[in-house]
Specification:
About 65% of the residues lie in helices and about 5% in strands. It is built from 13 helices and two strands. The protein has a two-stranded antiparallel ribbon.
Length: about 290
């Protein structure tokens, strides 16, 4: 239903006429249009988070490379040397780092987006804007970290004289899949964290536990065949296998039933996460 009200302002010289339109459900209908309208706020928050992350640090953006690099070294020693797991003919550091990139992106995005509404509570309670800007902006910051960390993979390829084949061109698709997974879980947990502060403690546990049950330090092929489909219920299994398939080329294989199941679950969690966030968005300011 649309209500139109005309307001005329008269003075001695000018006649100004305004039309005020009050439309039921306008906020819902124009939500995504409003998101584009507030794109400058989105860019500002993203840039602010990038600056804050490395403010007063000695080595700056090098931290984006140190964390995955050290984890890769530890995993290569533990799983490759001590446990003697198969590297499928590839240098073990490249096998691990190809999985470390999407995992690090997902884990950091999950941790920071889940707290994004709480850390910006002052702004949230004072002005209107599409709240989804906050968790999404933190994920964009981690996307920048991902691109910086990618430099280490290039160095490893040069060091081991490894040349990727045509599959490397499909890498943006799997990065998009990782982005979808991060957005879905991130928005869902951000909304839950507003109402139930227990998630401040649950999310770090999920990230830590997820690192061990995801195929980051080892190939998915070490999982027995009868458990492969069940193992693919972890949405990050499809993302990590996709990254390895694209980066490692012919020596990497995808278990397609598991990949399709994992991708379908990722898309489902994404739609569910966005929907839950939208349904609870109006209550954020009151609860905080």
């Amino acid at each position: 239903m649309v209500y139109k009200r005309q307001i005329n302002y008269f003075n001695m010289e000018n006649l100004l006429q305004y039309t005020l339109i009050i439309e039921a459900g306008r906020h819902e209908m124009h939500y995504w249009k409003d998101l584009w309208h507030y794109r400058e706020l989105f860019l500002f928050l993203s840039w602010r988070d990038i600056l804050v992350r490395y403010k007063q640090t000695v080595i700056g953006i090098a931290w984006s490379m140190i964390r995955p690099l050290l984890t890769m070294i530890v995993f290569s020693i533990v799983f490759g040397k001590l446990a003697g797991l198969s590297s499928e003919g590839m240098p073990y550091p490249i096998l691990v780092y190809a999985a470390m990139l999407p995992w690090q992106f997902f884990a950091n995005s999950l941790s920071e987006s889940s707290n994004s509404l709480i850390t910006n509570a002052n702004m949230l309670s004072k002005v209107y804007f599409p709240r989804i800007i906050m968790p999404v902006s933190t994920i964009i910051v981690n996307l920048v970290d991902f691109l910086i960390s990618f430099v280490i993979l290039v160095i490893l390829m040069v060091w081991y004289q490894f040349v990727p084949d045509w599959r490397i061109l499909t890498l943006p698709f799997f990065l998009f899949l990782a982005l979808i997974a991060s957005l879905g879980f991130g928005c869902w947990l951000a909304a839950l964290n507003v109402k139930y502060r227990d998630f401040r403690y649950i999310v770090p546990f999920i990230v830590q536990f997820g690192l061990y049950i995801s195929p980051v330090g080892f190939s998915t092929n070490v999982v027995p065949e009868k458990w492969r489909l069940f193992y693919s219920l972890n949405p990050m299994v499809g993302v990590i296998d996709g990254f390895r398939w694209a980066i490692l080329g012919g020596s990497a294989h995808i278990y397609w039933p598991g990949f399709l199941l994992s991708s379908a679950l990722t898309l489902t969690f994404f739609l569910f996460g966005i929907r839950y966030f939208r349904n609870t968005e109006r209550t954020f300011a009151d609860i905080i």
